Amino acid sequence: MRNERLFGILYTLLSEDSVTAKELADRFEVSTRTIYRDIDLLSSFQIPVYASKGKNGGIHLLDNFKFDKSLLSKEEQDQILFALQSMKKLGVYEESDMELSEKMQRIFQNKGKEWIHIDFTDWKNSSEQDTFFHFIKQAVLEERKIEFDYYNLHGEKSKRIVEPLQICFKHKAWYVQAYEEEKSDYRFFKVTRIKNLKVLNETFIRDMPRETIVKEPQELNIIYLELEITKEMAYRVYDEFENDEITVTKEGNFRIKTAYPEGEWVYGFLLSFGEYLRVISPTEVIEKIKEKLTNSMTQYL
Predict the structure, then answer these.
(1) pLDDT tens digit string along 227-250?
(2) Structural domains in the chain?
(3) Closest Cα to residue 69, out of 107, 104, 101, 100?
């Protein structure tokens, strides 16, 4: 209890220019004599706290005092503040985190430089995503199961009850890493396919194993593609195929070898390039693209 009060007094002195012993005594519900003993103890820790008399007197800290001199280096302080700032950029920041960040800035007397900007949100209103992260964070920290409707790669809907362990950003998308008791396995659930999320009262005890291959909630059928994309789409090639094998033809076009989990979204992705993309292989994907283009044409005849 005393340690908490000492920290509270120190935080108060960092936040306010001056405060009286009576004000501190009322705030911490102790006597003024106890406050003076606490001040003497803080002084013994080489914290420059002093009291002045008179009309504007009170208890103060030296103006140039920084808490990090007593506990943390400048580099350690910057790392802590940057970690808190990063939580905000990731879209998982809450009011309690904001208060903690402000407190640490006051304690360190350092606002911290935002030397990198991270933003995974889209350009539209992200309030729905913020709400989702709030509930998932609550479920993970309180070790409570969640229930939701899930749409797989083929658009099939199913009800899921899982034990959420982490939120993960992988290959340009957010996922929930969880254990599904019905399947006796660890799975990835893509956030955009989760609907009607509920945090249940049922709790669980489980940690994420250090070495686990976490899968999508169905066996993935990987298709290997060879594509040719014209030079007009260079910006998309470098944006969306940065980790794939890319060669440039003498005409300046791009030959790309890549692989994706099979699903309707793959064909939609390929068709989004329009006349600027040609599938070289495999044959079954070429035929599927032709079929979809033919069906699309019937919408305009």
Answers:
(1) 999 999 999 998 888 878 999 999
(2) 2-65 (1.10.10.10), 69-108 (no CATH), 127-203 (2.30.30.100), 222-300 (3.30.70)
(3) 107
Q: What's the one-letter identity of residue 30?
A: V
- If you search the block for the tokens 């099979």, which residue do you land on? 262
Nearest to 167 by CA among 231, 90, 268, 259: 90
Whole-model pTM: value is 0.48
Q: Which of 198, 195, 199, 177 is nearest to 186 (CA)?
A: 177
Residue 61, both tokens = 């800290």
C-alpha dist (Å) from residue 115 to 22, 44, 79, 245: 43, 37, 11, 32
Please state the three-class secondary structure of 142-166 as a single string: HCEEEEEEEECCCCCEEEEEEEEEE
CB 2 within 8 Å of CB 28: no
DSSP state, 298?
Answer: G
For the record, the structure tokens of 24 come out as 């501190």
Distance CA 129, CA 125 (A): 9
